[in-house]
Amino acid sequence: MTSDQKLSFNRQVIVRVLYIIAYFFLVTGLPMIVGDDWGELAVYIGTGVAAVLGLFLFRDRVIAGLKSLKEKRLKLVLSVIGFIVFQAVVVAIATKVVPGFGDSANQSAAKDAINGSLMVATILTLAVFAPIAEELVFREAMMGWAPGKVSLTIATLVSGLLFVYLHASFTLTGFIYYLPGTASLIAIYLLFKRNIAASMIAHIAFNSLSAIGVVTAGMG
């Protein structure tokens, strides 16, 4: 690696670290600062800002990824469908054998929010802004920098475990619920050679289906 390449690499790492810090401040720190009365709205605003900021910082990676997918659209569609089926099978089995499965605090909060007074903002955040921001943080920022197999393996484990923890706090039922989806997103990101656009589209598809399911159940 030449001195110019090292400098470019170091800059990329710094940008990624700063974005990770900004993300957690916007999504978790800001709601704590404003308090319970404005906390829910702060989460929506913070997530939206984090998504826009990430798209700006990693715009070259996103654009390159979208261009690359033009010739791989069928592969992406089949991959998304395959992983949706995989998750559905795991959830169906877990529902039968794990007591209280599917009752994680994060899942319950999402259902309450979707059926609450800020339904439109909740659905937009859940189905669009959160997937974009989370993929840019947990995949691109945490995994995209890794230059070799060892560093990529470590980054993948850290990214995956942190993602599951933030969604499920490592309760047994929550861990089982979110692990298949997390593994699916990581697999798609790596399957498409760290194409952040691929995992973003997959994440949007997964969350959109979940939102549709919750809304449909609430109307029933």
TrEMBL record:
Protein name (database record): CPBP family intramembrane metalloprotease
Transmembrane segments: 13-35, 41-58, 78-98, 118-138, 150-168, 174-192, 199-219
Organism lineage: Bacteria, Bacillati, Actinomycetota, Actinomycetes, Mycobacteriales
InterPro entries linked to this entry: CAAX_protease, Rce1/LyrA-like_dom
UniProtKB keywords: Hydrolase, Membrane, Metalloprotease, Protease, Transmembrane, Transmembrane helix
Organism: Corynebacterium pseudotuberculosis 258
Coiled coil ranges: none
Protein origin, superkingdom: Bacteria
Record carries keyword Transport: no
Molecular function GO labels: endopeptidase activity; metallopeptidase activity
Domain CAAX prenyl protease 2/Lysostaphin resistance protein A-like, chain residue ranges per copy: 119-208
Family annotation (Pfam families): Rce1-like
Gene Ontology terms: biological process: CAAX-box protein maturation
